[in-house]
From TrEMBL:
Record keyword Zinc-finger present: no
Gene transcribed to yield this protein: pgsA
Naturally occurring in which organism (per UniProt): Streptomyces sp. R21
Protein name from the UniProt record: CDP-diacylglycerol--glycerol-3-phosphate 3-phosphatidyltransferase
Molecular function per GO: CDP-diacylglycerol-glycerol-3-phosphate 3-phosphatidyltransferase activity
Any one cellular-component term (Gene Ontology): plasma membrane
InterPro entries: CDP-alcohol_PTase-I (IPR050324), CDP-OH_P_trans (IPR000462), CDP-OH_PTrfase_TM_dom (IPR043130), CDP_ALCOHOL_P_TRANSF_CS (IPR048254), Phosphatidylglycerol_P_synth (IPR004570)
The protein's Enzyme Commission number: 2.7.8.5
Pathway: Lipid metabolism; phospholipid metabolism
Region (Disordered): 1-24
């Protein structure tokens, strides 16, 4: 099909012998060249659209804080701009993960930076709201404590497996983002009452999904230990 004679494609016996005796230098060079190419591709993939969106979200955090606290934190115009920055951060959070999974743009940088960016913008918003007296500190403590606790829990049980994101967890994230966004805006009247109930729902989902993740971690750990014990017993037989 290629038009290359079999003798040319396979090489003569003497040529093969010389290559084998010399430790296949050509093969070694090809392997090293392949590694260099792979490294170059991986380095280039750092600047994919998913990672850029994650970096945008990280850059938005200090700008968001400056807007939230401008003029004592009670300027409606500044709060509206802060809401816009928060909304952009939430939207990029949705799209960067989707793009990374859909177009195979997952990188080590993205795995580390994405959850940091998520927690940074949410944590900044909650702390700003509580420091301004708009949101009780215990609400901020519950939400941030849950997020940090579940993150640590994932690292503890990662040797046994990965705890997948649940539908409840996604609903929690959406409800939290909506509630915090409503608190960022200078709302009054019925909308101010509505945001209270949305935040209440967010707190309930935060606690319930957190407990569910703990349950999953316990099950995953027990299953992993049982599988290791069974494998050890099988090896001894």
């Amino acid at each position: 099909m290629t038009g290359v004679p079999a003798s040319a494609a396979g090489g003569s016996p003497s040529t093969k012998g010389a290559a084998g005796a010399s430790g296949v230098p050509g093969g070694a060079k090809s392997a090293r060249g392949g590694k260099l190419v792979d490294a170059a591709v991986n380095q280039a993939s750092l600047w994919n659209i998913a990672n850029i969106l994650t970096m945008v979200r990280l850059v938005l955090v200090p700008g968001f804080v400056a807007l939230m606290l401008a003029d004592g934190g009670y300027d409606p115009a500044m709060r509206a701009w802060a809401w816009a920055a928060f909304a952009v951060a939430m939207i990029t959070d949705i799209f960067d993960g989707h793009l990374a999974r859909t177009y195979n743009l997952v990188t080590d940088f993205g795995k580390i930076a994405d959850p940091i960016a998520d927690k940074a913008i949410m944590g900044a918003a909650l702390i700003c709201l509580s420091s301004l007296g708009d949101l009780p500190w215990w609400v901020t403590g519950v939400i941030l404590g849950r997020e940090l606790g579940i993150t640590l829990l994932r690292f503890v049980v990662i040797r046994y497996g990965v705890i997948p994101a649940s539908r409840g967890g996604k609903m929690k994230t959406l409800t939290q983002g909506t509630a915090v966004g409503m608190y960022i805006l200078a709302l009054t009247g019925p909308l101010a009452t509505l945001r209270f109930w949305v935040m209440a729902a967010a707190v309930v989902l935060t606690v319930v999904t957190g407990l569910d993740y703990v349950r999953q971690a316990i099950v995953l750990r027990r299953r992993g230990i049982a599988e290791r014990q069974a494998a050890a017993e099988e090896a001894e037989r």
